[in-house]
Structure formats: structure tokens, C-alpha cells
Design a protein that fits this description.
Layout lengths: L3 E5 L5 H6 L9 E5 L2 H9 L5 E8 L3 E2 L1 H8 L5 E9 L2 E5 L10 E4 L4 H11 L4 E4 L3 H9 L5 E4 L3 H4 L3 E7 L6 E8 L11 E9 L6 H10 L5 E8 L7 E8 L5 H13 E11 L17 H15 L4
Parallel strand pairs: 1-2, 1-3, 7-8, 7-9
Antiparallel strand pairs: 3-4, 3-11, 5-11, 6-9, 6-10, 12-14, 12-15, 13-14
Helix pairs in contact: 7-8
Amino acid sequence: MPASYAYLGPEGTFTEVALRTLPETATRELIPYVSVQSALDAVRAGEAEAAFVPIENSVEGGITTTLDELVAGEPLMIYREVLLSITFALLVRPGTKLTDIKTVSAHPAAQPQVRNWLRANLPDALWESAASNADAARLVQEGRYDAAFAGEFAAARYGLEALETGIHDAENAQTRFVLVGRPARPAAPTGADKTSVVLWQRDDHPGALRDLLGEFASRGINLMLLQSRPTGAGIGNYCFCIDAEGHIADRRMAEALMGLRRICLQVRYLGSYPRADITPGEAGPTPPGTSDEEFMTAADWVARCQDGRF
């Protein structure tokens, strides 16, 4: 496998900035790809060791392109996550004034994060989506559009200047990125982990979603993301992308996944990996009755009952 990481490019994306926070990138070739799909396909084809892509932002929730790619196709697995605070700059060709701007461009996920600023400052500007924020900057450089919302750091790369900086509608906005590779044994639990799965219902009936969520709730597992995605099989057919606190090596998580495997049509395991928002020392205690020791004690009690030793 090549010692390289694919990422959503071109150079100058927030994705690249977040990727370079990983220590191992010092020994990897970082290769930009034009889309999330092509970056993940590079991993599936064996052209890259892993791909680094955005998966969620704190304003709009899950990045549907990434979720859909992980739901479908040859299975992949998440190994790491990174959180990056996001603020935009309005990048223009030198000499451009705010009154000159008729068209603006950025990645679709950027639009909800700058919508109010646009309404207040460029109410008549036409929005054009780009494959990434850095790609929008490249298109401004080529003269396709008048301005791009991107990281201020991308200005020098594309010969642009930042007409406005610090643009964001929501304070403390963040985007979550994940490092995705081919399936393998997950890393050992750290005590502050997250497990991601995709669930397909066996059939549609009253309380079906409650049944799925009950497998987590009855074991004291907190959910951090729940998003439905259409399966493509017709209106009303959905699967559910879920992030849950804990690691597959934890007894409570393992039992929850076994329960889901029994009642679901299909379960796709996307990995167990360290959380980026807290360190192991900051993780709170598990709810009463849900620790590994308590699960093992209960299992031992059942075994003794079966042997007539209760």
C-alpha cells in the first residue's frame, strides 16, 4: 500500500489544514483529489493508504456526500477524527471591491455558515457551488467567479487577496474530519472513543426506530450523531448513520451491536476510534450497571444459575 494520504483538494482546503495536524503526515505523501468520492475511491483501489475527508459540521450536521459514500460501495473504516474551527475569508482578485462582486463560490457546506453575512453584504450576488472552497478560490483566480469563501490561508496560494476576514454566522463553528482506510482491526480503546455504524431496518413498523435506539439506551450508550439517509429504494426507505460513545471492545457496545445485528436487516460497522473533543482523562463514568466489570459479573451470575450454583 502506498505511504500516501488522499484528501479533498485542491491545495489550500480546510481539509488539508486539518490533515496536517496529524503527526504521521510528516512521513506520508499528501495527494489532493477533486472530490470526496475520488479520495475514497483511491483507498478502495489501493492507490492511497487512507483518505481524509469532512464528515460533519456544527452548523448543518452531517456532510451527506461523505456519509453516502461510506454507506454504499466497498466497505471502509474510520480510524481517526480531527476537529477544526472554521472561519471564512472573502477572497478576490487584487483590486476587486465589494461593489464589483456579482458571483460568489464555495463548497455547498459553506453556504449555511455564511448565509446571513451574504444577505447583509452581498444580497444580489449569485451563489455558485464548487467542489471545495479551495477549488472556488482557483476558479476566482481563473476569472470564472468574482469571489470565493475559503480559508484566508488560501489567498497566497491562488494569487488572491482577502477582501473580508473572520466571516461566520455561528460563533465557534467547527468541522469534523475523518481519516478513512480499508477495514482492519480497530485500535485499542482509549477510554474516550466513538463508534460509527450504519443501520438498515428489517421492516417498517410503528416503533422501529425506537427499537434500534433502545439497543443503545438500555446499555447506557449516548448517541452523538443520528442522521437518516435515503437508500435509493424509494420514498420512505432510509438507513440511519449513528455515532455512539464507546468502543467495540467495550462489553456494553459489543452487546448493543450484537442486538442490532439480530434485529436489523443490515449493520455496517464504520469503526471505533478516539474522540477528538475530549481526552481519556476527561471522559465521565459510565452509567450504573454498564461497566465491563458489571457485564462480566452479570454473565458469571447467569453461568452459575445454569449450573445450579445460585
